[in-house]
Every structure is written in structure tokens, then in C-alpha cells.
What we know:
Helices cover 67% and strands 0% of the residues. Helix 4 (49-58) crosses helix 5 (63-79), helix 4 packs antiparallel against helix 10 and helix 10 (149-175) runs antiparallel to helix 11. It has one domain (3-253). The chain is mainly α. The termini are close together.
Amino acid sequence: MTPTTATDGGRSPDRFATTHWSMILACADSGTGEAKARKALTDLCKTYWRPIFAFICRRGYSVPDAQDLTQDFFLTMIEGDLLKRADPGRGRFRSLLLKTLQNFLVDDTIRKRARKRGGDIKFVSWDEWMAEAPSHFSISAREAETWSAEKIYDVRWAATAAEHALRQLGEECEARGRRRVFDVLSDCLAAERKDVSYPKLAKTLGVSETAVKRLVHQLRQRYRALLREEVAHTVEKPEDVDEELRYLCAALAATS
Length: 256
């Protein structure tokens, strides 16, 4: 995932009329709380639970406590009125979620209200989610101890966006009977071209080198489009997509 590859392609600005985050904000401002907006917020929270959980862990909470707090935070976001009280200049879901999470962790009253409202509801089944959407991105023990909670949050957010787009691409390939192609080529989609061994990939797949280059090109294009669409779900305006992509790419690059 690099700034150049991530911002190629594009989507029509009119897609933002119904994208998740703009719809959520519109409903928060109007106070209507439409079912579609609540579902969109639920979907975004489910996708981006890892950065929230990682942030809470870095703040010194044990894993079980961090799991409970993540659950409570989700309930507060989805059932509460935190979005209505948010800064109207909020354009990115990532930034607003982090600010809301920081406030949540220091406000015992908010946490108690979330626990009372949610009762024994488990918004995320941890074992199921870990198995259903495993992450291939890891933060070393040294980095986990030396990086700030905010840096861990941003890096984990960027990795989640990239992995979610890659997972969607894998599902598309599987639906078209090209799962093996994806499994063999997926590791090189975000790699520099000079680091890709086309002869080795061609031998593995049993096709010509020219065919491999064409397949890699096609998969890269689709991956970029999916990544762009993923990020578009988390910003309010179309002009925010490229900047958010650059920010996330820089966050991942800092880990290399």
C-alpha cells in the first residue's frame, strides 16, 4: 500500500450521496436516527474494532478489560448521542472515533451508561471475529511498548483498511473461480515491481510470464479501487479521500 498505488483509479463523487459516513453524519445532525444509518455505523464499527481494541490495550488495560471496554464503546456509539455532540468539522470517521474513544475512557459516567444500556449484550463475539477476519499484520512487542496509543491506533487503522480491501478482492476472485490466482499473487499487489519475481510466479501458476504480468496488473487495479472505496466509506466528502489515503499509507510506511 503506497501513496501512488492507493490513489490510482477513482469513484464518481455522486457515490458519496449514500456512503456510510456522510449518511451517518446527516442522520446525527437531523436527529432522525434512521435504521440505515445505524446499520452503516454498526458495519463501520465492526470493521474497525481492532484499532479501538489496540488503543485501549496500549492505555494499560488488560485484554479482558479492553474487550469489555470496546464492547461498551460500540454500544455508546450506536445507541448513544455522541455523534450529535461531535465537532461539526469532523470529516473523517477515524479522527472522530479516536476523539470519542479518548473522551469515553476518561468519562466514567459514559461508560456506566453504556454498560447499563447494553446489559449483557455482546456486540462482538471475539473468537468468531478473530477466526472470521484474521489479521496478517502484527505489531512487535517493542513497538507495542514504545509507540504511543495514538500511533498504534493509526497504524492498526491503516492495516485494517488495507486488509479489508484485500479480503474483498479475495472473495471476488473466489466467486470467479480464481482463488488460487489470488492466493499466489496477493502478496505482491502492494509490493514494488522490482521486488516481484514474475518468472517464479509464472512457474507456480503454470502460465506464461506475460500472463502473470497481466494478472498482477488487473488485480492491482481492482485492489486499488476497493481500497479507495473502503476509505471513501470513512470520510464525509469526496475531496477527503486522497488525503486520507496518503495519511494511512504514511502510517504504514513508518512501520517498515
